[in-house]
Specification:
Layout lengths: L9 H13 L3 H9 L4 H17 L10 H10 L13 H15 L6 H14 L6 H14 L7 H25 L3 H9 L14
Helix pairs in contact: 2-3, 3-5, 6-7, 7-8
């Protein structure tokens, strides 16, 4: 007898993955309760904790999708009037520090920047795809238990390092060419006065 395949909608799969990713454990709830006073700060800390756990860095609160905050609010049985947000930046700073300690992660600092600079510079000599180099940086930071920087910051750093290594490689190649061959290569880029096209084209 052939087995009947039961179709599962994409919406169902996404919902199951969503719950698996963002549902706080009893330990996480206890941690948040022990480090906050009142439902609002409790909610803030839980939202930050689950976001950090998923991303490896703290997103801006206004960038956290409403679906996530709504789900967490409902799961924790909190009032619909409670929104995510901090009245005092000092409380936000303290919560971030407590979350890092909970996950045993160090804030991104000069040492972390130095580590990924070395790793990316070394890898850029054998790979050129920026996405691959970003993964090298992320793997290094995760291995050494560092908080990840925001993607834009990481992307800018990796692109700068990649450009520097490429310039070094180009310089090494050019230095090995004699003057006659350099002149020939330059001429390939010059447009013909009649045809208005270079030999390279």
């Amino acid at each position: 007898m052939k087995e009947r395949l039961i179709p599962v909608s994409n919406v169902t799969i996404l919902h199951l993955n969503f719950k698996k990713t963002y549902t706080p454990t009893s330990t996480e709830i206890a941690f948040a309760r022990s480090n906050t006073q009142g439902d609002k700060n409790f909610f803030n800390l839980i939202v930050l904790l689950k976001s950090f756990q998923r991303l490896g860095y703290f997103p801006n609160l206004d960038q956290i999708p409403q679906d996530i905050t709504n789900y967490l609010r409902d799961y924790l049985k909190l009032s619909d009037n409670i929104d995510v947000g901090y009245a005092r930046s000092r409380t936000l700073y303290r919560h971030k520090k407590e979350i890092r300690a909970y996950f045993q992660v160090t804030a991104f600092d000069k040492q972390a920047r130095h580590l990924i600079s070395e790793a990316v510079s070394s890898s850029a000599s054998v790979m050129d795809n920026p996405a691959d180099l970003i993964n090298v940086a992320i793997e290094m930071l995760v291995k050494d238990r560092y908080e990840l920087p925001g993607f834009n910051s990481l992307n800018r750093l990796v692109c700068r390092l990649r450009t520097r290594v490429n310039h070094q490689l180009f310089s090494q190649v050019i230095q090995q060419l004699d003057e006659k061959y350099r002149t020939y290569l330059d001429s390939l880029l010059e447009n013909h006065p009649v045809h208005q096209r270079s030999p390279y084209k």
